[in-house]
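RECORD TYPE: inverse folding
INPUT: structure tokens
STRUCTURE:
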């Protein structure tokens, strides 16, 4: 597999001759190992990807068919070969083939394939197989709440294509509780196009589909219909306050964050605090407090902001559990940074990282709590555009695949600054050779696009 992956990268970089030599070496090894079942599927999937990269599409198709035969023949772990096979089909742009793999009796849904599902859905739609998409969602993905992650990119694509019928078809496949995010995106697109009729239809659908009223209130606010938002809040806030806290936490029945953001926008801060007190976990409380701050920013109520930030900071410092405290402090710093309060944010980011990196847990924890906290802190640094802080956090993570992926994200953000010295340091920090090569090539592509070298008339030069 590794040999065929090398061939694939060689072909990507234009070295077709070298890729051919590497493929021959890999095939010689394969013959000597006499593989079958899952190991054969893994190797053949990589070989198909190499052929595709080399432009040998017919060979790639034949190899995929062979890989599928081997996957179907796996006796001991019947579901194991399929994720490898799906990735290969998607890479080779055979979306109908990828879809058919899922029809195999032993195929299974793997969380790691979530982004591929979106690509398969868009691929099927573009190839004219839109009618297959409901089957992809309903038959294969039993955990239905994941369907909105998969369909969101497809809805965005259909909105760009102005295929509103397909947009509504996709929306019907998502359970009401998870439709909010997609509806927001649709309304935002139609608002830019000034398609007021579509917006009215979507909001009407929203009210009948059982989507969360708090999000509906927030949507009316974004459409400058504050009176309608206030009416909805008048109805739902009393219900939130009379529920015992544990029932609110279940399935996000009352998304208190949305309610707090809307209350912040219309200036009802005391009511927002009463809602926040109904939440049990400190993490949920922090998210709701920051949503309230977001609402205040949107309404230009800056007089209350300083006071509120101070309140949130002192509350965060009173939390006893360092893993929760460190992440919440990073969340606060992130909000401050985004809203231009850089001088106050940087010390908070440093404090969060120190707390997160110093977390001590029993040996049985295997450092998982510390790792999760540092990863989240890194992401908040990255999201706020504080790249130095994100790089510091990356150095606190142990070497491994997850760290490399985060380093890759950091690299893509840093390339845009044009700081070559820092870019090289980050590339050297990626420990897996294959990941480093991939990240380096991607960084170079982005760098050249953003900072094109001064080419002369002579193309060869």
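DESIGNED SEQUENCE:
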């Amino acid at each position: 597999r590794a040999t065929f992956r090398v061939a694939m990268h060689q072909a990507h970089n234009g070295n077709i001759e070298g890729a051919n030599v590497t493929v021959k070496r890999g095939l010689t090894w394969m013959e000597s190992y006499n593989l079958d079942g899952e190991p054969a599927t893994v190797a053949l999937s990589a070989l198909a990807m190499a052929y595709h990269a080399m432009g040998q599409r017919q060979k790639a198709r034949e190899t995929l068919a062979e890989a599928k035969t081997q996957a179907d023949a796996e006796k001991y772990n019947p579901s194991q070969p399929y994720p490898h096979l799906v990735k290969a089909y998607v890479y080779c742009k055979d979306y109908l083939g990828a879809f058919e793999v899922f029809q195999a009796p032993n195929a299974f849904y793997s969380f790691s394939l979530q982004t591929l599902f979106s690509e398969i859905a868009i691929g099927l739609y573009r190839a004219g197989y839109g009618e297959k998409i409901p089957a992809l969602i309903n038959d294969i993905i039993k955990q239905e709440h994941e369907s909105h992650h998969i369909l969101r990119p497809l809805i965005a694509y259909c909105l760009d294509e102005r295929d509103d019928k397909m947009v509504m078809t996709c929306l019907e496949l998502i359970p009401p509780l998870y439709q909010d995010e997609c509806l927001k995106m649709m309304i935002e697109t139609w608002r830019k196009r000034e398609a007021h009729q579509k917006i009215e239809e979507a909001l009407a659908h929203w009210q009948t589909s059982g989507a969360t009223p708090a999000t509906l209130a927030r949507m009316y606010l974004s459409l400058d219909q504050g009176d309608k938002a206030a009416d909805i809040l008048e109805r739902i806030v009393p219900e939130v306050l009379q529920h015992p806290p544990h029932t609110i936490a279940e399935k996000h029945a009352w998304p208190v964050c949305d309610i707090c953001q809307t209350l912040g926008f219309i200036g009802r801060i005391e009511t927002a605090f009463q809602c926040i007190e109904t939440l049990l976990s400190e993490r949920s409380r922090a998210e709701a407090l920051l949503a309230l701050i977001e609402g205040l920013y949107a309404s230009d109520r800056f007089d209350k902001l300083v006071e509120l930030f101070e309140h949130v900071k002192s509350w965060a410092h009173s939390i006893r559990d360092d893993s929760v405290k460190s992440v919440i402090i990073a969340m606060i710093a992130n909000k401050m940074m985004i809203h231009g309060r850089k001088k106050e944010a940087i010390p908070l980011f440093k404090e969060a990282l120190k707390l997160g990196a110093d977390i001590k847990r029993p040996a049985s924890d295997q450092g998982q709590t510390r790792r999760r906290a540092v990863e989240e802190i890194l992401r908040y640094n990255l999201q706020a555009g504080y790249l130095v802080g994100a790089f510091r956090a990356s150095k606190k993570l142990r070497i491994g695949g997850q760290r490399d992926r985060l380093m890759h994200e950091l690299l893509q953000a840093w390339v845009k600054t044009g700081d070559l010295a820092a870019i090289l340091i980050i590339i050297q920090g990626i420990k897996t050779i294959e990941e480093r090569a991939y990240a380096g090539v991607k960084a170079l592509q982005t760098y050249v696009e953003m900072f094109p070298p001064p080419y002369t008339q002579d193309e060869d030069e």
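NOTES: The chain has five domains: 1-108, 116-210, 212-318, 321-396, 399-451.
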